[in-house]
Amino acid sequence: MSITTARTRALAITLLVSLTLTACFDSGNKRAVGTDPVATPTPPPTTPPTTPPVSEPNQAPTISGTPLTSAKTNQPYAFQPVASDPDGDKVTFKVYNKPAWATFDPATGKLAGTPSSSSTGKFSNITIVASDGTDSVQLKPFEITVASTATTGSATLSWQPPTENADGSPLTNLAGYVIRYGTRSDALTTELKISNPGITTAMIEDLAPATWYFTVSAYTSTGVESVPSAVGSKTVT
């Protein structure tokens, strides 16, 4: 091989190295010729913030009705209020100061019952409340007065005034009479005194339904009382 040829190879090697160095390094933002461009990252899409829905404020239920303020013993009583909710919520009920003779339905608000003969009197401050679970509303407190429906009767008594004492002597100081009566013949606990010997009849009023028993005794001005008459009776229905 000639010297000229050897130089040529050396130059070729030098150029090859030079080209290799040029291809491996970049200066600043410049890219080597023949290489693919570097892709710029695309930022992810931004989602606008979601506004939470605004809920409507709860509306209280309504309740109405006019309860009867009187009742009779042994007769049914009932009051049904009317209630609704503007939001369509379920309405339930409570009652305060409920009479002992009545029942109450928490699903409908109905107050009902039949007072017995021992339930007469005034039941005050009865309050019915309607609720939708959030808000409540109540009727104006009311009262119920229970009156007796028991019928009453009367009995008319008449007798002959005594004219002599037990020893057969004339009775000269008759002062009046004592009527005793009751619903048991052996327990005549009610007395009516008549301080006039000229009266020989009397009417006993306001007798409740029952069989009543009566006796009449005479008494003198000195307080001596005769043996009672035979027991009479009358049934009041």
Any descriptors?
single chain, 237 residues, mainly beta, Immunoglobulin-like, 2 domains, 4-stranded antiparallel beta sheet, 16 strands
Number of helices: 1
Helix content: under 10%
Mean pLDDT: 85
Distance between the termini: 160 Å
CATH homologous superfamily heading of the largest domain: Immunoglobulins
Q: What value does the Rg take, in angstroms?
A: 56 Å
Q: What's the SSE pattern?
A: HEEEEEEEEEEEEEEEE
Total beta strand runs: 16
According to CATH, the fold-level topology of the largest domain is Immunoglobulin-like
The largest pleated sheet is described as: 5 strands, mixed
Structural class: mainly beta
The top-level CATH class of the largest domain is Mainly Beta
Uncertain residue ranges: 1-27
Report the portion of residues in β strands: 35-45%
Q: What is the overall silhouette?
A: rod-shaped
Give me the CATH architecture of the largest domain, please.
Sandwich
How many domain modules?
A: 2
